[in-house]
Amino acid sequence: MIPASGVRFEPPVPGRARIDRPRLLERLRDRFARVVTVVVTPAGMGKTTLLAQALEAGRGGESEMDFWLTCAPDDAAPSSLAEGLCGAMGIAPAR
Fold this sequence. Notes:
The protein is mostly helical. It contains four helices and no strands. The protein starts with a helix and ends in a 6-residue tail after the last helix.
């Protein structure tokens, strides 16, 4: 099931009991100086929380923008993923 569009394009709200990872957040601050930033670790290790914290810490810059897309099983199809990415950025997908 695909989540509601508002949920799909908004990072989760960090819970009360969260672990701050200053070293990893510092590395993510440089994400705009790179073409691609990839976060890889097994399930349950806090990738979503870390990325949500990075977005929360990085809000406010006009020239540096973050977009959030919570992927769904349908996003295995490139057309669905492209449509979701366009939605996250607020642009109409090419038809």
